[in-house]
Amino acid sequence: MSTSSPILIVGSMAFDDLDLPSGKARDVVGGSATYAAMTASVFAPVRVVAVVGDDFPEHVLIAMQARGIDTRGIERANGKTFRWAGRYDQDLVHRTTLDTQLNVFADFRPRLPESYRDTPFLLLGNIHPGLQLDVLEQVRSPRLVVADTMNFWITGEPTLLASMLKRIDVLIVNDEEARQLSGIHNIRRAARDILARGPKRLVIKRGEHGALLFDEEGVFAAHGFPLEDEVDPTGAGDSFAGGFLGYLATQSDVTPLALRRAMVHATATASFCVEAVGTGKVGVLARDEVSARVADIQKLYEFGASTM
Amino acid sequence: MSTSSPILIVGSMAFDDLDLPSGKARDVVGGSATYAAMTASVFAPVRVVAVVGDDFPEHVLIAMQARGIDTRGIERANGKTFRWAGRYDQDLVHRTTLDTQLNVFADFRPRLPESYRDTPFLLLGNIHPGLQLDVLEQVRSPRLVVADTMNFWITGEPTLLASMLKRIDVLIVNDEEARQLSGIHNIRRAARDILARGPKRLVIKRGEHGALLFDEEGVFAAHGFPLEDEVDPTGAGDSFAGGFLGYLATQSDVTPLALRRAMVHATATASFCVEAVGTGKVGVLARDEVSARVADIQKLYEFGASTM
């Protein structure tokens, strides 16, 4: 990984209680920063800024370090770790939030260790847009800033969100969020509206269907990989973002071609996430597994001329 | 079109009353055979077997003839033409059937003119599977048989449907129908289950997201073209089937490569259907328009190397 640039990821670390069709899973280690760090670490050195409570198991941090993840930016606060509980329907398409306990995450103020401030690649996970702006003040001339957000901030903090959008290179949202942010249902027109608000490129995730990239070249579609075994979609979006930035960190330049390849790698890392409960798969993911999945995804669009 | 093989299409012709976000449209000429014939006729000579009532306007049949559609198999029965009424939601994603009047379609018994019996390409539109089998008895050694079906027959006529599936080359259904037919939610496993029931290839349509082809080569994904203006999705699935078979009729062999190209052409013809009320666009569609849209769809997967 010596040729990859470091990535800084700011987001949540959590315990999730999951009611899945395959059964109930309790105290599952999750959070946006956790999933994104694990998939990004397949490609590049990762630095994490997050907060956990005194109940968070040390062995998880040690396992992250073993994957090249710098955990010095993970603050251990007095109190309990952020906890989310949700129930998925039989088809894993819809989910209901049963409980959210912010706990130590309620007072999270991202503070970057000095050694993090020159990180060239930055992922602003889904936290308060004011905190995302605060992180941007603490980094020095990053090469690429990617941000996520959610419905809660779109309706609750439109002004700060608008400021954040003006300062990032890539926004990654799902189709519902794109529609809510723009007020436009049509995906293509929604994308144009959002790009006019600041971000140079926009990625719209569409669940199992894959994701669209809108940039100066036009539209690129990374088709979702049809999985045989879908177990738990929790963290798939964050695993996508981690794979996206991770792949870009292996490239010398963020070109339109690199972005398109990053989309396919991101689709691959997201697909692994769904194949196990929690971080069961992304926590042990190897680069050659990702490469094989990328090849499988590319085959989805191949015209099969070689077989003629 | 002299190099294209003829296509026989059996299905419904109808009047639709549509409540669209853009307004109400009444007495819109529709039906599965109508849409499929119009898009197939972009590529090849088309022969239609259907029934209309004495209220069906002669000028529509004349316009079809002008596009190379042989209408001698369209029976004009005493009574009213099949009529469907539906309302779409604001986002054109969900629709509610408000009324269905089978009228002359209730007694439809497809009878092929002698001149139709040697047609090499056959599209069995969504009619009673017993009638689909009846059509198969009337054709002589077709090169390719493609069939559509729907929930109503999956639950209501499982035995006849099973017989039909054993005798076709390609089944085209949407994802809901694939799940209902197989009893399996996972698309990949549902596809394997359906292929084991007879059809050599399976196409699963997924609305705006495009369509998947499952065949002996594996899986191929034709991404939906993100449209700026979505007006009326009525007939999009039939326009897909017509474009699919139409493209194949221009090819000397039904190879895996030809099937993949047919998927992209089908996605293109379906996208035009959505851009106007009823057959407003597919009824006047030109081959070069389809070629341009196919190029736009292929650009969706391009890695943009040429722009580097």
UniProtKB/TrEMBL annotation, chains A, B:
Domain annotation Carbohydrate kinase PfkB: ranges: 27-280
MF terms in GO: kinase activity
Keyword Transferase: yes
InterPro entries: Carboh/pur_kinase_PfkB_CS, PfkB_dom, Ribokinase-like
The keyword Membrane appears for this protein: no
Gene3D superfamilies: 3.40.1190.20
Keyword entries, A-Z: Kinase, Transferase
Source species, domain of life: Bacteria
GO cellular component, one term: cytosol
Pfam families the UniProt entry points to: PfkB
Official protein name in the record: Sugar kinase
Organism annotation: Polyangium jinanense
Higher taxonomy: Bacteria, Pseudomonadati, Myxococcota, Polyangia, Polyangiales
